[in-house]
Write a structure and sequence with these properties.
Elements lengths: L3 E4 L2 E4 L10 H5 L2 E9 L2 E2 L2 H15 L7 H14 L5 E8 L17 E8 L11 E7 L14 H12 L4 E5 L4 E5 L3 E5 L5 E3 L10 H12 L4 E3 L2 E2 H6 L2 E6 L3 E8 L2 E2 L7 H15 L6
Parallel strand pairs: 7-8, 7-15, 11-12
Antiparallel strand pairs: 1-2, 1-6, 3-4, 3-5, 5-6, 8-9, 9-13, 10-11, 10-14, 14-15, 15-16
The structure holds N-(5'-phosphopyridoxyl)-D-alanine.
């Protein structure tokens, strides 16, 4: 079956999909992106993802390339053409193609819009065996709230984690606190059963899964505190887990060389994963 990508108004063969070499995304990382999870043909949290895309664009003063209505249509059309049941929709907007100059182009350019889809395995309510994380210094800029394609520090941190046998990197700031993962938000559960995740400010990405999980935790009457937590505190925690559009809720069973709790996925992460999958199941079927 042909796999399609959407590039600036056209559905094209994924193998041949391309943008110009002077696209500012390619040359200067002058662009933003979004990843929306798809489960059983249903988009998860589409609206908050598109709201965050709008916000990222606004922060960088890039005009939305198409209307919200058109973007929603393109997402569905690409999913339909690619028969996407489980996986993700990736969308990227850059400032467009212009003669290379760090400053914004002085003549009007059309922002570039690219969408692709990716199949992944079906994620169910079972959390699986859990993952290991490796701490890495957080060397990113001070606007991590913007979901830009400038991901080199995240790439290097993730690679270092993988080379050490861990699945994800936990980024640690100058004060010794965990900010977030290379591509996920970070959570712990304390000995008192409190859920802790870092507050959202310009130091981390306000994850959409994180936001949904806050509502779920509230519904389950779990005590949630949004505050910084140190790497040392995380290593002493009863449980730890990550959240993202592609990992849902996934337990962390090891931080560096220390097991978290008894080294097995804990009850809070299990419960939150079940509830998150229930939430995902309630969405509108697209394909
Ligand atoms: N990553 N923090 C960072 C740095 C991220 O890149 C992501 C998402 C998250 C979680 O956000 P959300 O719950 O909205 O997916 C947190 C996506 C999945 C990616 O880059 O592929």
């Amino acid at each position: 079956m042909a796999r399609y990508a959407y590039v600036n108004g056209r559905y094209v063969d994924h193998r041949e999909a391309s943008v110009h070499i002077e696209d500012r995304g390619y040359q200067l990382a002058d662009g933003v992106y979004e990843v929306v999870g798809v489960r059983d043909g249903k988009l998860i949290d589409e609206k908050p993802h598109l709201d965050r895309l709008d916000r990222s664009l606004k922060e960088l003063r890039i005009a939305p390339p198409v209307s919200r209505k058109t973007l929603c249509f393109v997402i569905r059309e690409l999913m339909r053409r690619n028969r996407l049941r489980d996986g993700l929709v990736y969308m990227q907007v850059t400032r467009g193609v212009a003669r290379r100059d760090h400053a914004f182009p002085t003549t009007p350019v059309r922002p570039s819009l690219v969408l692709t889809t990716k199949n992944t395995r079906h994620l169910g309510p079972d959390v699986g065996p859990g993952i290991a994380v490796r701490s890495q210094p957080d060397i990113r800029w001070e606007r991590c709230d913007i979901k830009t394609v400038a991901l080199l520090p995240n790439v290097l941190a993730k690679q270092a984690a993988r080379e050490s046998g861990a699945y994800e990197a936990w980024l640690v700031d100058a004060k010794g606190c965990v900010t977030e993962g290379a591509s996920t938000n970070a959570w712990i559960v304390t000995g008192d059963g409190e859920l802790i995740t870092r507050q959202t400010d310009s130091g981390i990405l306000a994850g959409i899964t994180r936001g949904t999980l806050k509502s779920i935790a509230d519904k389950l009457q779990l005590k949630l505190v949004e505050r910084p937590f140190s790497l040392a505190e995380a290593k002493q925690a009863n449980e730890a887990f990550i959240t993202s559009a592609t990992s849902f809720v996934t337990p962390v069973i090891r931080i560096d060389d220390a097991p978290v709790g008894d080294g097995k996925p804990g009850p809070t992460a299990r419960r939150l994963r079940e509830e998150y999958v229930r939430f995902a199941e309630a969405g509108e079927t697209v394909t």
